[in-house]
Amino acid sequence: MKTLLCLAVLSLCACGREDVSATLTSKMDAWGVAFNAHDTDALLSSYGDDAQYIYTFEGQEGQGRDALKAFYTQTFAATPDFAVTRKSYEVIEVADGVAMGLGEYDDTLTGPMGR
User: Fold this and answer.
1) pLDDT tens figures, 61-87
2) Rounded distance between C-alpha atoms, residue 91 and residue 102, angstroms
3) Of 14, 50, 62, 87, which one is least surrounded by beta carbons within 10 A?
């Protein structure tokens, strides 16, 4: 089991300061449901066209929704039982009008050697 860190950033103007923690947590919960369902369309719905990603475990990185879709598609094809479980999630205001959510997830999957 590896630990996966996820990050989300939200403008506080969009939902109000009192709701930002609930909003970001809800978005990450929806991300986890979509990830565990291997639903790439649902996963991509929350990313902009210029999204960038870095997958540190394999050294992969890319830019754009097409690259991200290819990454998720490849990942789910290689590990059909890949699932994540949120361990913790914290929302921090990092600047005036901007908040960041940082989550820690456990991931489980069967590797290439059946382990």
Assistant:
1) 888 889 889 989 988 998 899 999 999
2) 6
3) 50
